Inverse folding.
């Protein structure tokens, strides 16, 4: 099988809609997850990236083989996986981050939230210096008292991404901004406190509909509204663009080792 300069898609078809989205894009070579991972050695050429959509039972073997080949990896972890008990444990992502950090390989998680426009807007406020020195980045859930391990990991990923390079504290809860009411069921607040202002994204998950409110010193509160989006489609569009260019960093995608590749 020839995979040179293609995207290799290893799938168990557990999420049919995700599979259709990937296979509808150009330059995709599909390999069933039921195949032996050692078959990767029989492929001709080097893929631009490998999208891995497999359950927990087969994931370890596939990742071990992919790491041996040193191919960029995008692990699919869509919303419906949150209902599968064996996929609730995020420890495999911590292990993968450690392994790929040593190899300096780009690896990301598809199905994450960085790409949601409201959260991307917060990142722009930080990167542009509008909020000054960042003191705190915080996440507040609605009345979802026990979010799934998957959702908790995705929230922590957003906090890590927003706080990167700022020296800010990042965690759950945090300072109350704008005297905002608590988020409702299915909503979350992501707030930022800086030396020159504050900002808060109130959004519904996983589609990202919501708003961003910001207050800069000496200015009135500003609000931007954002419509719902298909985050996975946005991620795939970005992944294709970065893979075609051979980039080692993938902005707005949930990379496990930002700044280390």
């Amino acid at each position: 099988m020839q995979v040179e300069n293609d995207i290799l898609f290893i799938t168990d078809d557990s999420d049919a809609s995700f599979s259709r989205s990937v296979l509808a894009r150009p330059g995709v070579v599909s390999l069933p997850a039921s195949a032996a991972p050692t078959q990767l050695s029989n492929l001709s050429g080097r893929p631009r990236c490998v999208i891995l959509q497999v359950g927990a039972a087969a994931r370890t073997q596939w990742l071990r083989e992919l790491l041996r080949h040193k191919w960029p990896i995008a692990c699919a972890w869509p919303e419906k996986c949150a209902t599968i008990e064996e996929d609730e444990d995020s420890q495999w992502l911590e292990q993968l981050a450690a392994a790929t950090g040593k190899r300096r390989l780009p690896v990301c998680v598809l199905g994450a939230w960085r790409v949601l426009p409201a959260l991307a807007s917060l990142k722009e406020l930080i990167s542009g210096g509008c909020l000054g020195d960042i003191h705190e980045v915080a996440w507040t859930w609605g009345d979802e008292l026990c979010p799934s391990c998957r959702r908790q990991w995705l929230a922590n990923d957003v906090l890590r991404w927003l706080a990167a390079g700022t020296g800010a504290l990042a965690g759950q809860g945090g300072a109350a901004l704008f005297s905002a009411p608590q988020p409702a069921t299915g909503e979350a607040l992501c707030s930022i406190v800086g030396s020159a202002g504050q900002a808060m994204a109130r959004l519904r998950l996983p589609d990202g509909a919501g708003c961003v409110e910001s207050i800069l010193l000496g200015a009135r509160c500003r609000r931007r509204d954002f419509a719902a989006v298909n985050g996975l489609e946005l991620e795939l569009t970005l992944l294709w663009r970065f893979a075609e260019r051979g980039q080692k960093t993938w902005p707005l995608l949930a990379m496990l080792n930002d700044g280390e590749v």
